[in-house]
Amino acid sequence: MYAxxxxxxxxxxxxxxxxxxxxxxxxxxxxSVASADALVTRPVGEGEFAAAAGVGESLYRVEWVPxxxxxxxxxxxxxxxxxxxxxxxxxxxxxxxxxxxxxxxxECVPDVVVVCACSVGDRGVVSGVSAAVDRVLxxxxxxxxxxxxxxxxxVVVTRGAVAVEAGEDVRDLAAAPVxxxxxxxxxxxxGRLVLLDVDDAGASLDALREAVPTGEPQVAxxxxxxxxxxxxxxAASGVLVPVAEGQPWRLEPSRERTLEGLTLATAGDAARELxxxxxxxxxxxxxxxxxxxxxxxxxxxxxxxxxxxEGAGVVVATGPGVESYAVGDRVMGLWTGGFGxxxxxxxxxxxxxxxxxxxxxxxxxxxxxVTALYALRELAGVRPGESLLVHSAAGGVGMAAVQLAxxxxxxxxxxxxxxxxxxxxGLGIDGAHLASSRSLxxxxxxxxxxxxxxxxxxxxSLAGEYVDASLRLLxxxxxxxxxxxxxxxxxxxxxxxxxxVTYRAFDLMEAGPERIGEMLTEIVGxxxxxxxxxxxxxxxxxxxxxxxxxxxxxxxxVGKLVLSVxxxxxxxGVVLVTGAGACWAVWWLGIWWPSVGCVTCCWSADVARRxxxxxxSRRS
Length: 620
Ligand SMILES: NC(=O)c1ccc[n+]([C@@H]2O[C@H](COP(=O)([O-])OP(=O)(O)OC[C@H]3O[C@@H](n4cnc5c(N)ncnc54)[C@H](OP(=O)(O)O)[C@@H]3O)[C@@H](O)[C@H]2O)c1
Hints:
GO molecular function, one term: oxidoreductase activity
Protein name: Enoyl reductase (ER) domain-containing protein
Domain Enoyl reductase (ER): 257-563
InterPro entries: ADH-like_N, ER, GroES-like_sf, NAD(P)-bd_dom_sf, PKS_dehydratase_sf, PKS_NRPS_Biosynth_Enz, Quin_OxRdtase/zeta-crystal_CS, SpnB-like_Rossmann
Structural class: alpha/beta
Low-confidence stretches: 70-76, 579-584, 586-620
Bound molecules: NADP nicotinamide-adenine-dinucleotide phosphate
CATH architecture of the largest domain: 3-Layer(aba) Sandwich
Keywords: Multifunctional enzyme, Phosphopantetheine, Phosphoprotein, Transferase
């Protein structure tokens, strides 16, 4: 190194034999800053990082864990005031006195003063952010400026402004930056400010009395449980790594058939020679279905079934007889073994991804919408004016069926866990047409709302007495469409017990590739006309699939769960690294030089791969 202090540099890399490059660094005026005769790079496999995650691991991540007395709970709050709008209905649950502003609180300040921070009205996110942050900034400045508040804590309450659980979304984006703002203020004024985020569950409001006096600077309440952030060791823990590097892989169940044993196994067949009508797709996102959970647990009837039956990606090769797609086309559709970077698909079960859709959005559509269309129109033959009962209507197929039912002019009854009813109300189903999917009370409710008539069609995936109760709601000409696998019955026996009722259990694949492709194209057309809306979707990296599987097994989701698949780097490609992040790239190049301001570097994907590997480990 020859000089320090430059704010702009030029870097020249030149081949120096045996895979090495020479490095010459000069400042903006051409004066030498640093040089290296030869810089040799060595590939670092992801497996090496995983292997390093153990004893002495220096990587950490934040986890939200239940607050316990051992975590330092203080009990009792000597008085509580709420200042400003009570957006979340806190005055009553906290037993707080309400005040319009800090002036009104007066000189006798309670231990805890609460303010609510949330999106206001139907502003867009950008103006919503400004409004929320400006307001909280003024409140915090006012709070810290006055001596009378010195012995009290200001609690800033948000709802859905942070994600504290795997797969959780930040629902109030406009309020999310409030957390950043207040955390900065907390760093400068320890003990004066508390951040508290609550979800929609009724039990969470009740738990606020415990959450406020924890003495913790950041608290979240989820489903009535008080959580606090803690650093835990091992950033790589729980992250799956392909068993063999440089080969196609896919997510597969373990021999023990537990979610903990999910593995990224080698998938040589994904690179096999393509047969007639086949295309190879570089998968970028794949929809998770309940079927995948059953396969992973060894509970699916076909023990050879592969997980990953739908997704979205880019065509990378075409087989004989494929004329409608070319390499580079963005496609979505059905295939098997799709939880990995490559999948082989029958091109007839695909369609093009509409402009403006992300891969994750595209992957959330095929199975649920095509299944619902097939069940309602092809199997049940629904007619306008008929009535339909959709069970588990907040699930993927259920939400798709409710939307299609509107397109077909049906009257819809729906069941779901009561905690998911808001989602169905959002789809236009009123309280009279809603019932619980976890109680048999739906039979009586639907009978009374329908004036004793019941319904014309049932779309079912439940089992046992839920099926019996649903069958009793059907009369002459009624159709019972069973898509679940847990309780498939004999159509003849059902007809004998329920005269005039048709029972039909199905598997979508029976429709055949042409019909599936036609229905998928029709569905995309309905989206483009605005007749359908994409479902709420949560996305996990496929390397964290276990978390997504557990989320689905526990039925905590509404809409779709999607696994994103990391894009394979094109070895012929060029990677552009820009901005402040390039500092670490230059550091990595072996130039130990902290004063780099902003550098733009271009070099081969092979080098970039090593850089991105370095970025994921501070140790390296
Ligand atoms: N036959 C076919 O070709 C075909 C195609 C696609 C899907 N399916 C089947 O159709 C059903 C629905 O599919 P989907 O994609 O809509 O699934 P999903 O998104 O996972 O929704 C399933 C819903 O079932 C409810 N549920 C009731 N009891 C449950 C339990 N013990 N464990 C987990 N969830 C439970 C949950 O809703 P609540 O909490 O509201 O009760 C859950 O949201 C599944 O059984 C799936 O295998 C069949």
